[in-house]
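pls ignore typos typing on phone
zinc ion + seq
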Amino acid sequence: MTTLYKLTGTLQQYTWGGKDYIPNLIGFTAQKDQLYAEWWLGAHPSSPSTIKVDDKTMPLNQFLSQNPTALGQQSRSIFGDELPYLLKILDVKQPLSIQLHPTKQQAEIGFVEENVRGIDLTDPKRTYKDKNHKPEMMIALSDFWLLHGFKPKTEILKTLRERSSLQTLANQLETQDLHHFYSDIMQANQTQLASWLLPIFEHNRLEDLSPENPDYWVLYSQKEMNISLAQLDAGLMCFYLFNIVQIKQGQGIFQDAGIPHAYLRGQNIELMACSDNVIRGGLTSKHVNIDELLKVIDCREVIPELIKAAPPDNGSFTYTTPAKDFALENVRYDDTAQINGKAESATILLVMQGCLKISDKNTALELKQGESAFICADTAYQISGRQVGYCVLAKLP
Ligand SMILES: [Zn+2]
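k done
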């Protein structure tokens, strides 16, 4: 029986994507004026990858429903007959909306509640698209900037005090906890937002600011996202409340349930639980469900913890996080490397650089940069380097 298949991902052309990064990495010709935001590898029913079975192409979710043993016994006992994770490449040209994701329990309740209220799954006001949580890990493929969790209150106070238009907010925060303070800011009217933010636009120029400075991102986002000064987005205020984090190529970060975050600039690999549950918190023209946002947001003070980069030597290194839904293995090789592995659960391999041959006892696939494979659970395989580079393998921890 075949246990190793060539896999092809799907493109997502959101307006925040870039022109060249994903076409260059995956190996297709960019079309003029097209934006390529995400490349997905997985079995999410809204955009499943396809595999080649006996020269026929078939969606991975359909294959898995016909061949659930490919997921492995342990995976099926915890996650049922679905692939638990989704692997993505992102090219963040413009900032993404501020977002957070529910816990498993919140998602289960929210999904049923919205069904009961008769909100269609395709309704833009629908928040819970499925019953799953969506912890996320990302590994930077370039210098990467993001917002991640609330700063300690003392640091927020310092940031506010340093700006004359935000003094009144500092005074207010002295008497409030972060949740009440955040709630007031997210529900501020245009007059309030203008009094806080317009002086910042008046007194600064983007080219004079450094990206460690929250003012930089306020000006940058307004410009990149075309936010009208007459219709300010409350999300802009979050640059003063959240950690602004720079991640170097190879390092990563984990976003747990409830932690607000926004990708601002750069490219990354993202690995997450297979879910589409996103609660937005500003920097968006999409629907902001303020009640749900305030219910689910985790306002704890966060000191960002970076995931260490994989070592530069040949061989295997696995990034793990507190999430039980996924792990990412990084395999480096040169043209003589031979690495033996065993897929304990269903595994997706993506060649990030160079070329390799992957083989099991029945099949051998030659894969170059951007190409990928699906490996069924309980398969022993060998990776032979063909040209120096590395690949990533998404699987269960
Ligand atoms: Zn997210």
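Residues 99, 101, 136, 255, 261 surround zinc ion (CB under 6 Å). The domain at 95-309 is CATH 2.60.120 (Jelly Rolls). more later
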